Amino acid sequence: MPRMKALVLSGGSGTRLRPITHTSAKQLVPVANKPVLFYGLEAIAEAGITDVGIVVGDTADEIRQAVGDGSKLGIDVTYIPQDQPLGLAHAVLIAREFLGDDDFVMYLGDNFVVGGITGLVDAFRAERPDAQILLTRVPDPTSFGVAELDAHGRVRSLEEKPRHPKSDLALVGVYLFTPAVHEAVRAIEPSWRGELEITHAIQWLIDQGKDVRSTTVCGYWKDTGNVSDMLEVNRSVLETLRPGVEGTVDESSEIIGRVRIEAGAEVRGSRIVGPAVIGPGSVIRDSYIGPFTSISEDCRIEDSEVEYSIVLRESSITGVRRIETSLIGRNVQVTPAPRNPATHRLVLGDHSKVQISS
């Protein structure tokens, strides 16, 4: 059986997750207190692939620091610098030396596929079409690559972000290729966006009469590029959380349902309703933490209520009655506004969104 490698794309600037991604790689924003990128790398390792190339851009240092040589995830990592995000096919182009003549899976580092990719990889290895794409039905296909299938389920055509989609089948950020793709990425021209599109490379393979197949995933897939998707993925992961208390919980606290309290965390006089996770070193005092909430490490929540939210490390929420559906960055302080005078004092970063009841 031919060897398989993985190419994981972890460049990209994460404009839809600003202002969080002004200071952090979007692939490292945690879901259930683990960077979203790690779920993909673990899925690759579970599929029996250990040779992994990670394409990195501006946030390369941060990604290297988080992933290291990959040994803690059971993989062997090679870093491939991409000076500018010039498209997915460009990533294949610059990874040519790493990929050699091996088959490979290409995985977008901010994508999330529930149930992993082992079945897909096994089927691809057994049948070895020239390319295999993953599809899922979406309500608004105009913001995705869209596939049109023939009556036998083979891929007839692909379009990138079409104005008038021919179907509701969007490409999921996982692709499987044989070395045939290397000729395709060299044959195509940049799109109107100035990028070498992987959809054009796959279309080139189709036009050359190559065997391009698709699998439609009915399960669960998310591109964690925006806050609502991030919270939704967080929710789905927390539903599979292994509960357990490794930190300290005092007698006046109440823990209900699937809750994980990491080592070094303290819960005092509080009520936590799962699924929820409290990171190491965090202190929850006189507060309510509701379902589908991830509190990262070294946070302080006092006299507050937080539900269906993600709070990143070293942040504090004090005396705030109710926070819901929120993504709170690292080292943030949230406090009540002073009663008088009735004004709003704001220091906001670029591209911020604020809702104020007044």
Overall description:
- The protein has 358 residues and is an alpha/beta fold.
- It has 2 domains: 4-237, Spore Coat Polysaccharide Biosynthesis Protein SpsA, Chain A (Alpha-Beta Complex); 242-334, UDP N-Acetylglucosamine Acyltransferase, domain 1 (3 Solenoid).
- 20% of the residues lie in helices and 31% in strands.
- The chain has 8 helices and 30 strands.
- It has helices spanning 36-46, 60-67, 88-94, 96-99, 118-127, 180-187, 198-207, 227-238, and strands at residues 4-10, 30-31, 34-35, 51-56, 76-81, 103-108, 111-113, 131-137, 145-149, 155-160, 169-177, 212-216, 221-223, 244-245, 248-249, 254-256, 259-261, 266-268, 271-273, 276-278, 283-285, 288-289, 293-295, 300-302, 305-307, 310-311, 316-318, 323-324, 327-328, 333-334.
- The strands form 7 sheets. It has a 7-stranded mixed β-sheet with strand order 5-4-1-6-11-8-12, sandwiched between helices.
- α2 links the parallel β4 (51-56) and β5.
- α3 (88-94) crosses α6 (180-187).
- The longest helix is centred in the middle third of the chain and has 12 residues, at 227-238.
- The chain is elongated.
- The N and C termini lie far apart (65 Å).
